[in-house]
Design goal:
By secondary structure, the protein is of the alpha+beta class. It contains three helices and six strands; from the N terminus they run αααββββββ. It has helices at 7-16, 31-40, 42-48; strands at 50-58, 73-77, 86-91, 95-97, 101-102, 110-117.
Length: 118
């Protein structure tokens, strides 16, 4: 079934797609730790083969200028604690996947981050 908090799955998807060089040092314990690491340095994003294209408050994927694209890594933080943070990869015209289809929970407004493969 879906595992919306699994960082390992998402890193595995990127590796399987031949994106980046996910060597040791990528924190996979939680989506929060993973995003903090990604946002800490452009080198971290380059290591994973992605670039941050959006970070801000959103009610849904439609709030991203230009929309989300297949292959985008998406992190949704509704602000209700780390366990509520959702991480996945966009596929099939805007659906979110992490070992299965994930229903993104924006609640009212969430902090949305989108990273696009380079």
């Amino acid at each position: 079934g879906a595992q919306p908090a699994s960082v390992s799955n998402v890193v595995g998807y990127l590796t399987a797609a031949g994106v980046g060089n996910p060597a040791a040092g990528i924190p996979t314990s939680s989506p929060h730790d993973f995003v903090s690491w990604l946002d800490a340095s452009p080198e971290h994003q380059a290591q994973l083969g992605v670039i941050g294209v959006y970070s801000g408050a959103a009610r849904g994927f439609g709030d991203v200028p230009g929309g989300v694209h297949n292959g985008d890594v998406v992190v949704i933080d509704p602000g209700a604690g780390d366990s509520a943070t959702t991480l996945g990869v966009i596929a099939n015209s805007g659906q979110l996947y992490n070992n299965g289809l994930v229903q993104p929970d924006f609640g009212d407004v969430a902090t949305l981050r989108v990273y696009r493969p380079m």
